[in-house]
Write a structure and sequence with these properties.
Number of strands: 2
CATH architecture: Orthogonal Bundle
Number of domains: 1
Organism: Micromonospora tulbaghiae
Largest sheet: 2 strands, antiparallel
Distance between the termini: 41 Å
Number of helices: 3
Order of helices and strands: HHHEE
Structural class: mainly alpha
Helix content: 40-55%
Keywords: DNA-binding, Transcription, Transcription regulation
Pfam family, one: GntR
CATH topology: Arc Repressor Mutant, subunit A
CATH class: Mainly Alpha
InterPro entries: Tscrpt_reg_HTH_GntR, WH-like_DNA-bd_sf, WH_DNA-bd_sf
Protein name: Regulatory protein, gntR family
Length: 75
């Protein structure tokens, strides 16, 4: 029986696809966790997990007090 993709993975994959396609470029500011939760219609914890996954994949970087940005590609 097929299972649906977890919402946090769907959000992370959507943002990752935008980064790969160039729609989101290094240095672009990402929406806040609250804004992502509202956009995707999920709980803030789900949006937080998506952002954590992107951070683990080294696609985004956080700057305390400033926001979250698309990371520079690895050298």
């Amino acid at each position: 029986m097929p299972t649906a993709e977890a919402p946090f993975r769907r959000i992370a994959n959507d943002i990752a696809a935008k980064i790969r396609s160039g729609e989101l470029k290094p240095g672009d500011r990402l929406p806040s966790t609250r804004e992502l939760a509202e956009t995707y219609g999920v709980h803030m914890n789900t949006a937080y997990r998506a952002m954590s996954l992107l951070h683990d994949r080294e696609l985004i970087t956080g700057q305390p007090g400033r926001g979250t940005y698309v990371a520079e590609p690895p050298a």
